[in-house]
User: Fold this.
Amino acid sequence: GEDVEQSLFLSVREGDSSVINCTYTDSSSTYLYWYKQEPGAGLQLLTYIFSNMDMKQDQRLTVLLNKKDKHLSLRIADTQTGDSAIYFCAEKDDKIIFGKGTRLHILP
Amino acid sequence: GAVVSQHPSWVICKSGTSVKIECRSLDFQATTMFWYRQFPKQSLMLMATSNEGSKATYEQGVEKDKFLINHASLTLSTLTVTSAHPEDSSFYICSARDLRGNSPLHFGNGTRLTVT
Assistant:
């Protein structure tokens, strides 16, 4: 089965909060990552969380980590049109394993 | 922040020719770089791990003679798609990790290869 799972689509109204969820399998990962990919572009490291943390906040981004349930989430506050992209959750330290990506669509 | 430069950003070639893609870490050294392939609307598939000064490690199902990897220095890895065919058309992305450790992977902007 998949090592990293995330929902494929999310639609959010501009100004609302977006929450993208992810489940992973490797509890030994030192870091867990969120990458953003805009159309035709490479991956941009959005944020990451050290595995011994529960939460990390960086401006509009909040990452929550539930190690017991192996659940990772990314919350984007005050979602803007520029946030429209595919968001990848990733785990493992060396050969990073990516989820299939969540396509975030912003509604006007 | 850490920057990984990938070149070219796009290339069109004819079937049977070879194409070389470069991946450079601009402000850090990387003993390990990774090459990924991404099909439209799909996730990234790890193709191989490029190791400076030694042979690359290929993932299952990836032909090493087809996708030649050379990691000649601590800042440069190249991927050569040999005898390209239309089915090799894809988006190829490289990534690198600072050898000082405890840092996440940084990605290049990708190379879109179209084989006609």
The mean pLDDT of chain B is 90. Chain B touches chain A through 19 residues (CB under 8 Å). The two ends of chain B are 37 Å apart (CA to CA). The first strand of chain B starts at residue 4 and ends at 7.
